[in-house]
Specification:
Blueprint: H1 5-11, H2 17-32, E1 38-40, E2 43-45, H3 57-67, E3 76-80, H4 91-94, E4 98-100, E5 120-122, H5 125-135, H6 144-153, E6 155-157, E7 171-175, H7 182-196, E8 204-207, H8 216-225, E9 236-237, H9 247-251, E10 258-262, H10 264-273, E11 283-286, H11 295-305, E12 316-318, H12 322-330, H13 333-339, E13 343-344, H14 347-351, H15 358-363, H16 365-372, E14 376-379, H17 382-388, E15 394-397, H18 400-409
Parallel strand pairs: 2-3, 2-5, 3-4, 7-8, 7-10, 8-9, 11-12, 11-14, 12-13, 14-15
Antiparallel strand pairs: 1-6
Helix pairs in contact: 2-3, 2-6, 5-8, 7-8, 7-10, 11-13
């Protein structure tokens, strides 16, 4: 790699061992991906440890680097405030981090947003997809170590979607069916991800959708679900993505290497994949694994449940992020839903159970569901269905209106 004098000094230990260690990681990454140089980043939105595999190691590693003189060089290095409680010291203050809201890997939760063309570290796959595809900023998905090394040095290796040529469309998905709600958007994302499979890096271009009918909630739902099966962290939606105002622009004048048509049959395949013959679910969850409910959908749910009571056969829960929950509390939406028997979050439900926490559910959803005796779960997003799907667990995908009907009637209609 071609390093600047300043980068070489950092690699040689001229700024201390902490920075040297972080730079060594970035250089090894760059060499692995044949990157020619490092690029400055404007921000880093990170997923705070600890890693589920080694719960105590992440903060210990950060502590070591900080004591060796390292701190965040990226102009804006953000960590989700909701996760800070997992660490028992003030390491993040000493690293000069900024605390953002959220923390569920949802693009709706960005504390701030990058600008077109900027390079950054962008949390997990959903946020990375959102900033790549709908802002035109540039990011790859990095592990915990890569995220923090980049934030500490303020640099990333120039590979993947940091390279302009790699951002061009490669495959074409022509949508010939109406996409009516966020559940459909998630199903579309899952279908594209599944179809690309092991060549998920061949950037999909989505055509056939009227840009005037697309909302930010739609884009968030799509961004959460398209990386679920294969890690698609960049796609181009014609007329919406800044790098795809038309097909010519999306493909850079080239022809797609593969073309796919998405019609009713393809969309129904997703819904059939996440279905069950059982008549009574064990839980209905609006939101789940990084696809939590927006303020707009909270208002819609309050209207749909107005004057109704949910079945007592199983819990009906709504998963919301911190900022959404706070706003909905102030404007009375939480109270309206709770009046109908809907639970806001899993806290109330888990209090009746022993040995399973909210973080257990997030980190090991299949194991947690089995321990709780949850065999049939109804979601309104394909990502949650895919994440919790297992030979012993049947996830069911339904749109919001159908989920409400099941919650009230107590049974899944054929």
């Amino acid at each position: 790699m071609q390093l600047t004098k300043d980068e070489q000094k950092m690699l040689d230990g001229g700024y201390g061992k902490g920075f040297q260690h972080a730079m060594q990681i970035l250089v090894k990454m760059g060499e692995f991906y044949d990157a020619k140089r490092l690029l400055p980043i404007t921000m880093a939105f990170m997923t705070l440890g600890p890693s589920p595999a080694k719960p105590a190691q992440a903060p210990l590693w950060l502590e070591k680097l900080q004591k060796e003189g390292a701190y965040f060089m990226a102009p804006m290095s953000m960590e989700p405030i909701a996760q800070v409680k997992d660490v028992t010291n003030d390491i993040h203050n000493r690293l000069k981090g900024i605390y953002g809201v959220g923390g569920s890997g949802n693009a709706r939760n960005l504390f701030t947003r990058p600008v077109f063309g900027q390079n950054l570290v962008a949390d997990g796959t959903a946020v990375t997809h959102y900033v790549n595809s709908y802002i035109g900023a540039r990011a790859n998905t990095l592990c915990f170590i890569g995220q923090y090394a980049a934030a500490l040095c303020g640099k990333v290796p120039e590979y993947g979607y940091h390279v302009k040529e790699n951002r061009l469309g490669k495959t074409l998905f022509d949508v010939k069916v109406d996409i009516n709600n966020t559940t459909d958007w998630g199903a579309l994302g899952f279908y594209i991800s599944y179809t690309l499979g092991t060549h998920y890096w061949d950037v999909p271009v989505i055509a056939g959708i009227d840009p005037a009918k697309v909302s930010d909630d739609d884009l968030v739902a799509f961004s959460c679900c398209i990386p679920a099966y294969g890690a698609v962290v960049h796609s181009l939606l014609v007329g919406v993505s800044p790098e795809a105002q038309d097909l010519e622009m999306a493909f850079g004048g080239n022809k797609p290497i593969e073309k796919y048509t998405v019609g009713k049959k393809e969309m129904q395949w997703v819904y059939d994949r996440f279905s069950t013959k059982r008549s009574v679910p064990d839980m209905i969850s609006f939101g789940g694994f990084g696809t939590n409910v927006s303020i707009k959908d909270m208002n819609k749910l309050a209207e749909l449940f107005e004057g109704k009571k949910v079945s007592t056969k199983f819990p009906t829960v709504v998963m919301v992020d911190g900022p959404v929950k706070e706003v909905c509390e102030k404007i009375g939406l939480n109270a309206r839903l709770e009046k109908s028997g809907v639970q806001i979050g899993l806290e109330k439900y888990l209090k009746t159970k022993e040995g399973v926490s909210g973080s257990d559910f997030s980190n090991n959803p299949v194991t947690a569901a089995k321990r709780l005796g949850l065999n049939t779960l109804v979601f309104f997003d394909a990502k949650s269905c895919h994440y919790i799907g297992n030979q012993d667990i049947q996830p069911v995908l339904k749109n919001m209106e159908d989920c409400v009907k099941i919650a009230v009637s107590g049974k899944i209609e054929a």
